Every structure is written in structure tokens, then in C-alpha cells.
Amino acid sequence: MNIVYRKELDKMPVYRPGKPIEDVKRELGLQHVIKLASNENPFGFSPCVKEAVIKSLDEINLYPDGNATLLKDTIAKKYDVMPEMVLPTCGSDEMVDLIAKSFIDKGDEVIMSEVTFPRYFITSQMMGAEIKAIPLKNLTYDIEAFKKAVSPRTKLIWLCNPNNPTGTIFTEKQLQELIEVIPSTTLIVYDEAYCEFVTNESYPKNSIDYIKKHKNMIAMKTLSKAYGLAGLRIGYTIGDPEVLSIINRVRNPFNVTLITQAAAVAAINDDGFLKKVVDNNTEGKNYIYAEFDKMGLEYAKTEANHIIFNSGKDSEEVFNALLQKGVIIRPQNCFNPDTWLRVSIGTMEENKIFIKCLKEVLV
Questions:
Q1: pLDDT-derived band at 1, boundaries 50, 70, 90
Q2: Given 104, 207, 216, 287, which is the most exposed site by the fewest CB atoms within 10 A?
Q3: Count of CB atoms within 10 A of residue 248's CB?
Q4: Are residues 215 and 289 in the same domain?
């Protein structure tokens, strides 16, 4: 090809999403397929969301509020912050890209976990960063290694808590210790996409306290997981207004649609639905734990809505064998040996189908 492009792209793989249900049905001639691959909410979304979406349809001939004023106000009220400390985006994916474009120059030192949300790698590489990837320790962030890796050159640190794909956490004490060694000139990006599912008391439940104290820290949140709005693509970031104003300069206008803004406001205000989702997720993970224990499988205790486990067999073979049975999960090729997979926690019926099929595949 004669067209010149950024050479950083040579190192970047194309993202591989979870296989869609309809594709599996069509390719394999199956009538019933369950998808437990993309950490989606199996319990749907709040009934209030449907009402808000239907009402908003009367206005889709208009551009959305480019400032997302009502949504910002709703989020600000929920977390007791100023609206200027809130920036909604088209999912957390967009925010990750905006952060990289805003703050990373070629050659900048960026720190992240070796196994974490892949968009951190992709966007950092795209901007030409020098990446320090910290290996996991016992399937968990090695905070001591992070502390040692921080230097005056460190421009940005990506933190995912609970981590994707492991579902494991680092504690509030560990977060405090890490922040203490990070220079005020280093941006701390704290991604807590799965925080609603956490039951561990040692988890830093209130990231807003840290943001108010440390102007170089921002927290990313999403409505794709616990709130069930993955198809509408909506996330938001809370941070110092000055930091967010920089990111806002490269944000596309009207990046959050009119329908999505209405749905997000309705979802955030329905605490009852959120509790139902979290309670069912806890019940489901405990069931899967018990079944994995009976099968003698190694797995990581999760604080998210997904679990990684060691099948003891080639992950692609297990993935394909389950696919033939109409169960879609996710191989995790980032581990050695390549025998690990990730399953999203579904409804109890889906969890039982998954376990039944897994037992048949691993015989």
C-alpha cells in the first residue's frame, strides 16, 4: 500500500469482540445459544429506561444536548460533586482514547498492568508511548511493583479496579500507598467499570474522596455493566474540572446521543434495579465457585461479573467445543499456559447450562 500511516499501528492487533449470538446460530444451525463472553448484564435494564427511551423518540430529529446537562447534573448529585467534574462519553472506550490523545506524547512513559483492559495498550501504543507493563502477582495487580516502576518520567498510569479480565481487586490501603509515590505531574486514570459488583470490604468504595484530594486523578465509570446499557454506549468520568476541560477540547461534539442521555438519567435513578442485578450476580458467582471447586478447576475470586478459570486444556479447543453446544465464552490468550478462559456470570439458568456443557467438554 502506498498510503502512509502511523507506524505505531503495526504493533496493534484488531480488537476481537465476543462472538454474536446470531452468528453462532447461523453458522452452527443452533436454535438456542447463550452468550457469556462480553460481561454483559443478563438481567436487562431498568423498566424506567424503556419509558425514557420511548419518550425521547419524539425528539430524535434534534441534535442532543452537546453538554449533556441533565445527565451531568444527575451524576453530580449522585456523587456530591460539581457538574463541571463530570464528563460523559460514548462508553469508557471513547474516554480511554480521548485521554491518550490529550496527554500522551511520543516517548512518554506509561505504566499499566501486563494483563488488563486491552484498550489501554492500544491507545497508548497509538500515541507512541513507552509502556511499562507490570506482571500480575497471583492473578492480581502487583502494587509493590507498580510503586517501584513509578519514576519522574511517568506521564500516565492506567489502573483497573476490579481488573478486567481477572475480576480481582487491589485494596484501599494499596491504592493509598500507590498514590503517595506518584508525582502530582502524573495522571492517574482509575477505571472502576465493575465497582457496583464489589462485595469485598477492603475495596476503595469511594474513589471520589481521592479525586477531590488529588487533582491528578480521574475515575472512569460505565453504565454498560451493572446498569445494562451496553448497547447504548455510555460512560462517564469524574475528575478535576481543569483536567476534564483539556479532554473536552478533543471530544467530538454530540458524542452522547439524545436517546442515550435520556436512558442514562433513568438508569442512574433506579437504585432498586441495581440492587437486583448485584444480588443476582453474587448468587451466580457463588454457584459457579462451588461447581468449579467440585470439578477441581483453578479460578480467580472475582469482584466483577465475570470469572477467569483454568480449564487444563487448550483454551481455543474448549471455546470451540462449548460453541458447538451453544455456549459462548471467551478464551484468555494473555496467560501462560494458554488454558485460561473467562465466563461472564449469567442468569442462574444460563450458569447451570454453562456448567453442564463445561463438564461434558472437559471429560
A1: low
A2: 287
A3: 13
A4: no
